[in-house]
Amino acid sequence: MSTIPLVEDNPHIMKINARLLTLRGYQVLQAETVTQAREQLCWHPVDLIVLDILLPDGSGLELCRELKAQRPIPILFLTALGENQDVVEGLRAGGDDYLAKPYDLEVLVVRIEARLRAAEEVRRYCCYGGLKLDLLTMTGYVNGQDIQLTQKEFTALLLARAAEHKVSQEELMEALWGPDATPRAAPSGP
């Protein structure tokens, strides 16, 4: 079940959206201010945020920038500001989607579903150049062609892709064979 905070200061809109999303199977958190939203986000892992821009104690745009600097969470702006320049500003602030009020409830739900699917796709795959690793099925692809990988080969590729520094032999051995693995000594002799 996906968790979605609604950050909205209009109680009527909050009630309608919360009920709709709850009926669709989402866990809904409710915040009327930037301060309440920050507090909830400290304590609850969330999958997407529906965020108003005009809030009583601050700007949803600033909250969006702050959140995007911390983690890649999908943010859908739902706001009364509907001019083209407002949309551009919201998307440039880091918003992933933008819906102006008044809006259709089904359009809101479909946009949420689309953003959640896109976020799941990003979490499922790890890509680097022509290499694509499917973290769910532990399958590898090179330029779209399935490659047969053992579990250890998959782990080694994933480790190499995730490493921001050179991986030592000890790190590689531990990742592949566990913490008790020791590197084999090179054979001695002539």
List the helices and strands and how they pair.
Elements (H helix, E strand, L loop, with lengths): L2 E5 L3 H13 L3 E5 L2 H10 L5 E3 L2 E2 L2 E2 H11 L4 E5 L4 H9 L4 E4 L4 H20 E4 L2 E4 L4 E4 L2 E3 L3 H12 L6 H9 L13
Parallel strand pairs: 1-2, 1-3, 3-6, 6-7
Antiparallel strand pairs: 4-5, 8-9, 9-10, 10-11
Helix pairs in contact: 6-7
CATH topology of the largest domain: Rossmann fold
**Overall average residue pLDDT:** 86
Helical proportion, percent range: 40-55%
Our Rg estimate from Cα atoms comes to 22 Å
- Spans of 5+ residues with little confidence (pLDDT < 50)? none
Major β-sheet profile: 5 strands, parallel
Topology pattern, helix = H, strand = E: EHEHEEEHEHEHEEEEHH
| CATH superfamily (homologous) name of the largest domain | Response regulator
Strand order of the largest sheet: 2-1-3-6-7
CATH class of the largest domain: Alpha Beta
Count helical runs.
7
* Binned strand content: 15-25%
How many domains is the backbone divided into?
2
The first-to-last residue Cα distance is: 63 Å
CATH level-two architecture of the largest domain: 3-Layer(aba) Sandwich
Strand elements, count: 11
